[in-house]
Specification:
The complex is a heterodimer.
Chain A (H helix, E strand, L loop, with lengths): L4 E3 L2 E4 L5 E6 L6 E7 L5 E8 L14 E5 L5 E5 L8 E8 L9 E2 L3 E5 L1
Parallel strand pairs in A: 2-10
Antiparallel strand pairs in A: 1-3, 3-7, 4-5, 4-8, 6-7, 8-9, 8-10
Chain B lengths: L2 E3 L4 E5 L4 E3 L2 E3 L5 E8 L6 E7 L7 E2 L2 E6 L4 E6 L8 E9 L7 E3 L3 E6 L1
Parallel strand pairs in B: 2-12
Antiparallel strand pairs in B: 1-4, 3-9, 5-6, 5-10, 7-8, 8-9, 10-11, 10-12
The chains are: A mainly beta, B mainly beta.
Chain lengths: 115, 116
Amino acid sequence: GAGVSQSPSNKVTEKGKDVELRCDPISGHTALYWYRQSLGQGLEFLIYFQGNSAPDKSGLPSDRFSAERTGGSVSTLTIQRTQQEDSAVYLCASSVDLALRRELFFGEGSRLTVL
Amino acid sequence: AQTVTQSQPEMSVQEAETVTLSCTYDTSESDYYLFWYKQPPSRQMILVIRQEAYKQQNATENRFSVNFQKAAKSFSLKISDSQLGDAAMYFCAYRSVYNQGGKLIFGQGTELSVKP
């Protein structure tokens, strides 16, 4: 597609349930990032993928969070046993590669609300 | 670890006027990139301008320019001739050239409102 696509746009779930958030990056982009934006806060890095290299998971806040990227394209962020503090907007971004001056292109995010 | 601080949670400007958004950062590195991103209500982050630390010349993009003071670790964004469409959250971000996979480290954001 023309831009980074994320789904669902909004998700409301009950505490304790698992959720999956999907990111479809720009075609040809090898680098993919997940960020979390809590209410009134900046963006918190979660994980990034670059090609076939092992992902950098250093930003994942707990072992309830995991992510995978299939075929070097679509990525899924999974949150198990959701907690209320997981409520946030989850933003995905992609980049042509990891060259540092490269612009990151962001999706519109998935707003997660945990009741 | 690097940190980015935006000390102005909210700013307001009159249409057609000029406004400056502040950003400071903390790093021990000598080379890095700095960015300003805009986030409108659609939530999609959009790159406004970038600066490479080894370049002394301040970056400009049309009505947007930066004042990069490397010694002071300051990176402010100036918006000239403000337009209603400039209303958004603005985030300052840092990117290391040495490690961390090129991920961006963001400040807390400044919400800019533009008055007609």
